[in-house]
Amino acid sequence: MANDDIVARIEANPKYHELVRKRSSYSIIMSILMIIAYYGYILLIAFNKEWLGTPLAPGMVTTIGIPLGVGVIVFTIAITNVYVRKANSDFDDMSAEVIREANQK
Amino acid sequence: MISQSMRNALLLATGVLAAGAVFAAGADLGNTTKQATNWVAIAMFAIFVAVTLGITKWAAARTKSAADFYTAGGGITGFQNGLAIAGDYMSAASFLGISGLVFANGFDGLIFSIGWLVGWPVITFLMAERLRNLGKFTFADVAAYRFSQVPMRSFAATGSLVVVAFYMIAQMVGAGQLIKVLFGLEYTFAVVIVGVLMMCYVLFGGMTATTWVQIIKAIMLLTGATFMALAVLFQFGFNPEALFAKAVEVHSKHQAIMAPGALIKDPVSAISVGMALMFGTAGLPHILMRFFTVPSAKEARKSVGWATTWIGYFYILTFIIGFGAIVMLTQDPAAYYVPKMVDGVQAVGADGKPVWDGLRGGGNMAAIHLANAVGGNVFLGFISAVAFATILAVVAGLTLSGASAVSHDLYATVFKHGNADSTSELRVSKITTVCLGIVAVFLGIAFEKENVAYMVMLAFAIACSANFPVLFMSVLWKDCTTKGAVAGGVVGLVASVGLTVLSASVWEAVLKNPKGSAWFPYSSPALFSMTAAFLVIYLVSKMDNSEQAKRERALYPAQKVRSETGVGAATASGH
Question: Taking residues B488-494, what's their average pLDDT?
Fold first, then answer.
């Protein structure tokens, strides 16, 4: 199958390995950030409920935990879309180049 | 008599909402009491049914091959698929359950909704494009890519069907409970309506109809929830502090609703539940299947980007809706609350004011009552119809993924060894759809009086302990072998079900053993069962030195090239 040749040529192309390395480290870093944000929040609740229940300012009813919690939601949306944008532009360009080179030879 | 049964229903509903339980339970709809027949809601729902059946007719003309049936021919755009995924995920339980939890406990509802959202980035970063590049119709295509087909497909189909079954029972029972309060109709009636309509969508319109039902429902739910949240915020000049201040003033728990309560008991349960939600989402067959409906990895990524955005936005809305309900429903207690009766008359508190019990129809009705408070009877009808349509759409998605597991994985690959033609595969999917529809109706009726609170969480626990580790290791670890993957997956499946049975939510709540006798003390088995699955996959694969294992490892580089670049991936149409 001609497909096997293309796969072999892609495997031999250092640009392919660079793409995999870059994209993997990018997604691993993003995953770690997400895990820190979520488990950080959960562990804060488990170990320090009082602090999260402190009002933002004297006389207010809104507590520190509310903007932090909404912040985790907004962070989740943001980090997902940052990755999608980056992968759909830079990484896909690299990927397209690798495939083009494999088809040319 | 009536007040007694109402009291029981309320006790059940509030019992389910009692913080700790609900985190383990996964926003259950609890038991409900039948209300007066709501013709506006029924009419609104009838319109939804008419429109969606019209779409099904249109979709039926385009559903000719197995590819059309499973993946809508791969012709769905990223934006459309994002809405459909959001539609799959925003269930009636999350809309009514989370807003009800906020209504009862305030802050804790926020913790809950965050948990349901954090699985999405994980899917985006690790799974979405690889799924799209390696798979065709089901996640088993991906898991079994370089492995021995029969054992892998058998395992993956089992994992899919078990998850679908538990998720489905929870939805069917929820539908029956909801129709009593929303439309004032009988439980059995709801279960049959859902079963029949869902069968029509899937049978005739396949993935195309199912996707559009999800999209329409997602738009209706997002529009309705946005209107309610805006109406609440408008009253307070778009100042959340003013809303919270009023809620703290009128809520019986006062300032306590602004701080975390009893939802998170111990750190181990917190982490374990967090893992089930975070990684379980990436193992739900009806969600994973959606990645094959788009033409490319680029669109698959866009899908999750949009899905995460809509779902996160929706959870912020439910938080506002819950607080809005606290404030606005107490302004007219006679309309929304059940009077607390003592010796046949309403009790009067020390302050001379009448005393009220819980909400009419149960604690999960906060959002529904708020719809009436901000938009009157017509809007109430709209939101009720949306809530019911939501269940219908989710059940359709589940059925489709169950049917594809049977026809594509079991029939075409395990029994026919890949020699089934598209026509016969399609016929098997349709027969399976009818069977699943009948089974769903039967289970819905059988479980009417049962406590199903644990079932959605169990579905997530199985998805994260059986499906996710197998999928993850087969795609990302070169040394993984068939033996390792199947052994680890089976261990994860057995451990997650076994530990759930031994936990308080089944051992005490369902099997009626004495309180405190549960052998497994935590809210979710995920931390242990998922770790065990990964460990077994690792160890068994490492020890596997058979010729087959060597061949499977040798296939990894080619699989990786395809998963990373999409070279050779199934194309949009014309399979």
Answer: 97
Tell me the pLDDT tens digit for each residue of B135-170: 888 999 999 999 999 999 999 999 999 999 999 998
Asked whether the predicted pLDDT for residue B17 surpasses 50, the reply is: no
B551: pLDDT confidence band, cut at 50, 70 and 90?
very high
φ and ψ at residue B69, rounded to 5 degrees: -65, -50
Residues 3-22 in A contacting B (C-alpha not used; CB under 8 Å): 3-4, 6-7, 10-11, 16, 19-20
Question: What is the homologous superfamily of the domain B2-464 according to CATH?
Answer: Sodium/glucose cotransporter (1.20.1730.10)
B403-421 pLDDT per residue, tens: 999 999 999 989 888 888 8
Task: Check if B478 contacts A (Cβ < 8 Å).
Answer: no
Domain count, chain A: 1
Which are the contacts of B34, defined by CB distance < 8 A and separation ≥ 6?
B180, B181, B184, B185, B186
pLDDT in tens, B179-220: 888 888 889 988 999 999 999 999 999 999 999 999 999 999
A34·B118 Cβ contact <8 A: yes
Q: Which residues contact B326 (CB under 8 A, 6 or more apart)?
A: B102, B103, B106, B247, B250, B251, B257
Kindly list the residues from chain B whose CB atom is less than 8 angstroms away from the CB atom of residue A70: 110, 316, 319
What's the Cα-to-Cα distance from B283 to each of B17, B139, B382, B473, B487, rounded to whole Å? 27, 9, 33, 13, 17
Give the residue numbers spanning the domain of A24.
Answer: 2-104
Structural domain boundaries of chain B? 2-464
Give the C-alpha separation, B378 to B390, whole Å: 18
- Residue with token string 């991936």: B569
Cβ contact, residue pair B244, A66, below 8 Å: yes
Length of chain A (residues): 105
**Which residues on neighbouring strands pair with residue B339, listed in sequence order?**
B356
Sequence-ordered alpha helix ranges (H) in B295-447? 297-329, 333-336, 366-404, 422-446
pLDDT for B349: 79
How many angstroms separate the CA of residue B556 from the nearest CA in chain A?
Answer: 11
Q: Give bridge partners of residue B348 from the DSSP assignment.
A: B354
Name the nearest CA neighbour of B172 among B436, B429, B371, B493. B436
